[in-house]
Amino acid sequence: MSHWGGLGILILPPLGFIVYSHFWLKYSIHNEGGVFSKDENLFSSLENAFGGEFAKIAISAPLLALLPLGVLAWGPIALIIGFCSKEGRENWTNYKESRIMAITIILATIIISAALPVSQPNGPVEWGEPFAKENPDAAIWPSSEVFLWLSYEPEIMVISHTTTRIPGVAHSYLADELTAKIIEITGADDKRLKMAVERMSQETILAGAFDPERFELVEIPSEGEHIYKSEERGIEESLVASRHYVTYDSLLPGTEVLEVLTVHMSEMGGIVHTLTIVKLAFSIGDIWSEAVVMQWIEHLELQ
């Protein structure tokens, strides 16, 4: 089911646009003079209903979805360009109602496609069974799923694998960067990490002294990506990656109690896989958790 959202982005906007123009607009009061003719081809009908340039933009919505960052990034740019010329502004005045309705339909299909279920996260056999398969703090939209594991190898840590559908995006290129930026801007990490931080505190000396409702994330300066390479496994992936400390002022202001590593991988259909590893801040292990991330990458590539 994971690719259906991306497929919906490619099919539903132009389909809804055409159905709207040929069935609703055909019988509206604005066409009493007869906009449509039996001799007209499809594009001529769309030109008469919405204006030529807008018709081209709407029909090309699937191509915009295939561009990096998708429809929600390039669609507004295309519309703004349409306002740059005097003729373009006049066309918006002449076709305002029909164009607003068409944009509404396209946005509705993007919202619907982003709500389609994603495939369930899973992990390699080395991780065992997840202790949680849902997150009550997860956002309702867009569609996402999260599984969490507790691991003691190579050190004690909580691992979470989240699959998220990015609205309006069908191509995998830059989808992981977009996800990382959205998380950074919205501060979504706090809610996404709440379960993992709470479980990690229960398994360590923090139990009873740590309140998962009151922690803060402090970014650790890094390059923003890391190359995971293993000749033995045949893996070489440059992944968007970020590191944070979890601080808890009730213990001591600015106390770094846990460390969080987050990496992202994207796939066609606008799906982004996010791996988050939470471990003790004074851990002496690999800061990039190479062994665990390699297992995860290999598992995803085998699916």
Give the tags.
single chain, about 300 residues, alpha+beta, seven-stranded antiparallel sheet, 10 helices, 7 strands, about 40% helix, elongated
Give the SSE map.
Elements: H1 4-24, H2 42-50, H3 52-59, H4 61-66, H5 71-83, H6 86-94, H7 96-114, E1 144-151, E2 157-165, H8 175-186, H9 189-202, E3 216-220, E4 225-230, E5 235-247, E6 256-267, E7 271-280, H10 290-302
Antiparallel strand pairs: 1-2, 2-7, 3-5, 4-5, 5-6, 6-7
Helix pairs in contact: 1-7, 2-3
Following the backbone from N to C, one meets helices and strands in this order, namely HHHHHHHEEHHEEEEEH
Q: Look at the helices and sheets and give the structural class.
A: alpha+beta
> How many beta-strand elements?
7
Estimate the strand proportion: 15-25%
Measured on Cα atoms, how large is the radius of gyration?
24 Å
How large is the count of helical segments? 10
CA-based shape: elongated
The portion of residues assigned to helices is 40-55%
Averaging pLDDT over every residue, what do you get? 76
Distance between the amino and carboxyl termini: 14 Å
Number of domains: 2
The low-confidence runs, each spanning 5 or more residues with pLDDT under 50, are 29-39
**Main sheet characteristics:** 7 strands, antiparallel
